[in-house]
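Help: why these numbers?

___
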Amino acid sequence: MTLDEIVANLESYISKHTRVIKALKRYRAYAENQVGIHHKDKIIRSLRLNDELTHYIGDNGALYLRQNNRLVPLEGLTIEDVIIEETLPKSSLETLKTYSIGEKPFIDFEDNDWIKDFEEREEIHSKIKELVDEMLTTGDSFYKIENIGGCSQITILYKEEVIVVPDSFNSSRVGAYIYFTVKETVDPLTVSKVNYNYVEIYMPDGKIYIYTNKDKKEEYSRVKTMKCEDVNIGLGEFSLHHIRGLSRVKNNLYSHSIFKGLGTSLTELVVRKTSNAFLFNKVNNPTLLIGGSSYTAINTETGEKEAKISGKAIPFDEPTEATATRYLEPPTSHTPSIYQHIEFILDDVYKQLGVNEISLGISQDGNIASGEAFKKAITPTLNKCRDIVNCLRKPLTKMYEQAYYIENKEKISITIKFKDGISLSEKENIENKSSLINNKILSRTSILIEMGFTEEEAKKELKRIADEDKLLNPVFEMIDIPSGRTDE
């Protein structure tokens, strides 16, 4: 694929890309716990069909209160004021990040000083977390590496801004990347802000073609009329990298969001939780106390005021008296029987996201002392996390190798080792290492070296262990008696 072909078809690429990213606004709302607000219109329609709620919600989402058989608008209140957001999407992302890249991966390379400087300067661990968050939320994440004054610089790019162009002869391979956006600058003459189109085209040989046009009316399809600058940082390969997500699209270079297919389930959860809170806590609570002292009595056991009756509106003489009362029964005590199938919805969501109540920390079963037992309890989550780090391994390896080449003009080969972020007890660590020795997978020398001994120190330690073993467990050797002799 040539540069001229890409430029000639840029308008078509952008048009197709618009369809690819159509659902991203919804997924980004999910990731920020805004399921309810994003689907507000759908939730209003659903709530108006749920039993008594139809009497209290207007078509536009305004809230009403029934008084003397007529509806009185609740001043300034709309359905947005009572929507309970579903927090499961964001908590699931955080859980997957914690057990995949929560701990900084170990880079196996001899120049530790350079790695430390690079990671601190570019805040690499934070950027890895952002890349994983993007990859899970939108399906794909991108970063580019640049040479800024002899130093490598890592910049996170977003799926809305990057087009993956397939190769002309093999659609399963990348032919080029296009980064396009509208940038803002300040005109030094007028000291006013100016928007301009900005396009970067990344080719397989490492060259980057940058197009700019400060005329904001100019469309990307006219990129050939823009000012062009070509950049080559000498890598000989792509300097923009693509981290594909967990849900690969067949015969496509893009991946799906981890939330794809969950819209109905998440919206249903918000509808049911909101309807419960609104109907029984805001409007129609059978034991809501808004009454006066003549309708209350002192509980001799607790010393608190309680209502003599329930199910009626009782105006208080003094607002401060409200703090001295309590509900005769919890406002949501009926919820388990009415909304029992919420558990079935949650179960389906857990399965798709690869999490469960234990890994999310919302189950008492998660209070397990043993690290090994905890790992077994969250196996689905750890399996998903292993998939995440496998997606990261190659792009992150390129990040370190290219950054080192930019700054030192030397090609290197590194190995990245990820940790699952779950600490084992000292006893479990010893048992695991003993198992490796007994099953002849690792030698005692290798285990000691792993614990921080040098090879020479490890051999001396093993000899000392053997000597002590002889002292504590002496061996009595059989004495051979020459033939022809007997002991009497």
Residues 379-408 form the longest helix (30 residues). Residues 1 and 168 are 6 Å apart (CA to CA). The chain has 17 helices and 16 strands.
